[in-house]
Amino acid sequence: MNLLTTAIYRLERIYNEGRLHSSLGYLAPVEFEHNWLAQKRLESGLVI
């Protein structure tokens, strides 16, 4: 990877995985998705 590609990749990871979003209840997107999927599993009875 060249330097620009590496920088964009790192920024994208920080933004999508680590940065807290107010629209998601101040959770990181990855954490929000994990919680959402867990809730859907509970609602459908697919507790794993």
UniProtKB/TrEMBL annotation:
Superkingdom field: Bacteria
Record's protein name: Integrase catalytic domain-containing protein
Organism: Candidatus Chlorohelix allophototropha
Lineage: Bacteria, Bacillati, Chloroflexota, Chloroflexia, Candidatus Chloroheliales
